[in-house]
Write a structure and sequence with these properties.
Chain A has twelve helices and seven strands. With 321 residues, chain A is an alpha/beta fold. Classes of the chains: A alpha/beta (321), B alpha/beta (360). Bound molecules: thiamine diphosphate.
Chain lengths: 321, 360
């Protein structure tokens, strides 16, 4: 990225901080993972952070997001509590879902982060339903729903688009197209690549972003959010991005043969964390990095020190009071 | 056809794993019948559904080993249509939970077609599905939903617990002219057993007595059979002799074999790898009681998942599943109802805990 900074200094610092926090948190999770303290499947977003960060940066605190089992990035970008996320991964009673969610079902209703789901596509209509209620509420709040390319293949995706458009729901659909569903490339799964064109036939404006440039994503999301608040009904963005690590787990999988390290390196060359960091002056960047390291260390410490849930907690939350 | 009971007892055949047995069954059936094909997400990749579809893509090509979009509902319908046209699809799901996306096609079309259309069409379809467990599989990757399928006329449901039966049941399922829900368990994958090399079938509707005993009959479903066998050892130390039965096939269900054992023990404890309410255990207990019509007193018990959603944290998950110790303790209370509660001296870890690590 060039020296041209496309945003004001405050925004730049905020975006970098968010990207850096997510990257470093997940690197720390990957570092801890072999110790078996985190007994939860982890689907890391490393490499894909800019989608969550770019979108969440234009949302208001009372807007709502919804994401998937690959949800650490969206959770943190929307301001989800890091300590409680880390404790949840450790299975501790202080976790965001009291140890019942693990990494795949994070939630923080206090930060307007809806619960995530390990069944692909399931959160898309739920987010639309939440948006339906937000529309009725009439306070101008909107929802953003993040999902992968694979999720667009489920019937419920198309069914939801139709309903959302029909009822002009205040929702931003965000497809994180990382090119794979586990190891299956889109070429195995899509008759054509023209996802945005498919979406437009429902009367939904759709924007295709060719890469993971965080400011381009932020700008597109900003326009979309503004239109939604103006009553346009749903908007859609497809962000091309790349998952650097294996589908699930802390490691890399470039020896598995389904993709090449060259592919990774092309994306790494435009790493959004490094690129935005390079736009900051050194002292400011260092201050953010130090703050981030402090937060992560505190979260790990919080998770380690927290107690396990009491055995009888197994039976709490079966029914709501 | 070789007698499966004999070969498993006499140890005929090489010792191979549950995974290898499934792979071999499919490979041999695909050789035998051009109409057999495998369809499901990631069936063709290097992980090969934990190895169970290993090498099939190289041997049979992408025309018969078909990766899919995430479109379980449609793929189920497509498999049903192909089956009606005479093909024999094997639709593979990495978790049983995903069968919930197939319910409409499977139950409203697949299960009904032969009857609803007066016998004009058949649906020889296999739905392979794996139950997950532990390492944070949690709410949506751990469900044992076999009882839901047992409820519906037109579906067969099998849950083999060892490599021998896995191969024989899968071949039988492929050759069956009806939709078969084939229930696998992730923790059983690494277990091995003597498995004949030649193709053979394990017939549905025949339970297997895997341990004799006089005091109580334990019926273990899917992975819980393993825990029942371990409970049997613990009970022996307390001087209680437990018979252990593997139903193998849940629908059709072999009531005779279970009832025969109960004739002697007059105590029946069914341990399911699923929730208890309206579960396979309810069906088995009711069927045995109906058969006996109070011929003699019968103590019955059911165990299974706690009546909660599966939590991810190991601290709570421990209480969610029955294990050898809780099964032995429950059996003890049924055999010696007057005595104080008993728990085996050393609380055993679950069988898989020593060998199993995530992520998966
Ligand atoms: C309904 C359903 N089918 C299959 C799976 C197994 N599965 C888990 S993640 C995944 C890949 C989904 O790909 P995508 O939506 O592109 O998201 P990504 O993992 O790339 O972020 C699959 C197939 C699932 N969890 N849910």
């Amino acid at each position: 990225m060039s020296g041209n900074v496309p945003v004001d200094p405050e925004t730049l610092a905020r975006v970098y901080r968010s990207l850096r926090l997510i990257r470093r948190t997940e690197e720390e999770i990957a570092r801890i993972y072999p110790s078996d303290k985190i007994k939860s499947p982890v689907h890391l977003s490393i490499g894909q952070e800019s989608v969550s960060v770019g979108v969440c940066d234009v949302l208001d605190a009372d807007d709502v997001i919804s994401a998937t089992y690959r949800g650490h990035a969206a959770y943190l970008a929307k301001g989800g509590d890091l300590n409680r996320m880390m404790a949840e991964l450790y299975g501790k009673g202080t976790g965001c879902a009291a140890g019942k969610a693990g990494s795949m079902h994070l939630i923080d209703m206090g930060a307007n982060v809806l619960g995530m789901s390990a069944v692909v596509g399931t959160t898309i209509p739920v987010a639309a339903g939440y948006a339906f209620a937000l529309g009725r509420e009439g306070k101008g709040r909107i929802a953003a729903s993040f999902f992968g390319d694979g999720a667009t293949e489920e019937g419920v995706f198309s069914e939801t688009l139709n309903f959302a458009s029909l009822h002009k729901l205040p929702i931003l659909f965000v497809c994180e197209n990382n090119g794979f569903a586990i190891h299956s490339p889109t070429s195995n799964r899509w008759a054509t690549e023209r996802l945005c064109e498919r979406v437009r036939t429902y009367g939904i404006e759709a924007k295709e972003l060719p890469d993971d440039d965080v400011f381009a994503i932020r700008e597109a999301a900003g326009h979309a959010a503004q239109a939604i608040r103006g009553g346009s009904g749903p908007q859609f963005i497809e962000c091309k991005t790349y998952r650097w690590r294996e589908h699930v787990g802390p490691g890399e999988d470039y020896d598995d043969g389904y993709r090449t390290r060259d592919e990774l390196e092309a994306w790494q060359a435009r790493d959004q964390v490094a690129a935005t960091g390079a736009m900051l002056d050194l002292a400011e960047r260092q201050a953010i990095d130090d703050e981030v390291e402090g937060l992560i260390a505190e979260a790990v410490d919080f998770a380690e020190q927290s107690p396990w849930p009491e055995p009888e907690e197994l039976y709490s939350h079966v029914f709501a009071d | 056809m070789s007698s499966p009971t004999d070969s498993s007892k006499t140890g005929k055949g090489r010792v191979i794993s549950y995974v290898e047995a499934l792979q071999e069954a499919v490979s041999q059936e695909m050789d035998r019948d051009q109409g057999v094909f495998v369809i499901g997400l990631n069936v063709d990749d290097h992980k090969a559904i934990q190895g169970t579809t290993h090498g099939l893509i190289d041997k049979f090509g992408p025309g018969r080993v078909i990766d899919t979009p995430l479109s379980e509902d449609a793929i189920t319908g497509i498999a049903i249509g192909a089956a009606m046209a005479g093909m024999r699809p094997i639709h593979v799901h990495i978790r049983m939970d995903f069968l919930l996306l197939c319910m409409n096609q499977l139950i409203n079309m697949g299960a009904k077609a032969h009857y609803m259309y007066g016998g004009q069409v058949k649906v020889p379809l296999v739905m392979r599905s794996i139950i997950g467990k532990s390492w944070g599989q949690g709410a949506q990757h751990s469900q044992g939903l076999h009882a839901m399928f047992m409820h519906v006329p037109g579906l067969k449901v099998v849950a083999p617990t060892n490599a021998h039966d896995a191969k024989g049941c899968l071949i039988a399922a492929i050759r069956d002219n009806n939709p078969v829900v084939f229930v696998e368990h992730r923790i059983l994958y690494s277990t091995d057993a003597p498995v004949p090399e030649d193709p053979y079938t394990v017939d549905f509707g025949k339970a297997r007595v895997v341990g004799d005993g006089d005091d109580i009959t334990l019926v273990g479903i899917s992975y819980m059979l393993v825990e029942c066998l371990r409970a049997r050892k613990l009970l022996a130390e307390a001087g209680i002799s437990a018979a252990v039965i593997d139903p193998v096939s849940l629908l059709p269900l072999d009531v005779d074999t279970i009832a025969r054992s109960v004739e002697q023990t007059e105590r029946l404890l069914v341990v399911d790898n699923a929730w208890v309410t309206c579960g396979a255990g309810a069906e088995i207990v009711a069927a045995v009681c109906e058969r006996r019509q109070g011929a003699s007193p019968l103590a019955v018990g059911r165990m299974g998942y706690a009546p909660t959603t599966c939590p991810t944290t190991p601290a709570l998950e421990k209480g969610f599943y029955p294990n050898a110790a809780t099964i032995a303790s429950k059996a003890h209370s049924m055999v010696r109802p007057g005595e104080p509660e008993w728990a085996p001296a050393a609380e055993p870890t679950l069988a898989h805990e020593a060998v199993f690590r995530g992520p998966f």
